[in-house]
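Lest this sound abstract, we let one protein speak, letters for residues, whole numbers for local backbone shapes, and leave readers to judge:
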Amino acid sequence: MITVIGSLNMDLVINTAKIPRPGETVLGKSFKQIPGGKGGNQADAAAKLGADVHLIGCVGDDAMGAILKNSLKADGVDADAILVKTTAATGVAAIIVEASGDNAITVAPGANYELTAQDIEAHRSDISASTILLLQLEIPLDTVRASLNIAKSAGIKTILNPAPAAELDEEILRAIDILTPNETELEFLSGQKTKTLADIESAGNSLIQKGVGELVVTLGQNGCMHINQNGAKHYNAYKVKAIDTTAAGDSFNAALAVYLDAGKDMASAIEFALKVGAMTVTKEGAQTSLPFKYEVDDFDNWRSSQVLK
């Protein structure tokens, strides 16, 4: 079982020709409300890929919170541990998606920042019964720390997607089995430049020296790099026409967790995650873009149809 601890947001998505500069007004082409949040996205992706998924998080006592919970349940996520807080509204993310597929996101965390270490302690038995714990940084850092400590004491494999980037002390770093930053987050965490693959390997190794087990650094259209004490390996991305990059990293992390949960080796897990990430960016939205297992199983045929377009 995979336990995901993290954020749930309602994504307020506006499609535009371009992302506006400061002070500029741009007319949007469309508006949608789509379930999102890094925790919700990763849980939803893992469930669609066939895993047994348990999600711990918070929503507000409002209509958006109810919609988020029901949507996750419909996709197969065990959402019983999603807490309803009366002290804050459900988190929202304002997302501007331009024609290129790139996006700009502003998040109002709301109830996500009401998830406490005490809430996590109340679910110690659920975490301890898991195979993998998957976390992000859209919840309080003390909550992340408490979650990692419970997993570490129970011998559970931990995956931390450090997004958005935040300072992580060595206690947290030593509790991470797999760290999955993008190159910007890696630069922030390591304090080293990440312009080349050699830079990325060096920066990753600096975090391994501080206690991280291994890293999978996501590089967008340039694929990813796996770094551990035995060295580094670069994996190329699949070339597709990107429509919306929202949730691409979330789907990658979920897919990685799903394959590792199934007992696959890291190389196989990365190749699977690259396929899932590639499929995700060809659809709009966060959870609406996440592929099901049967779709990924037909990846080669799907990719051929993409190339022909």
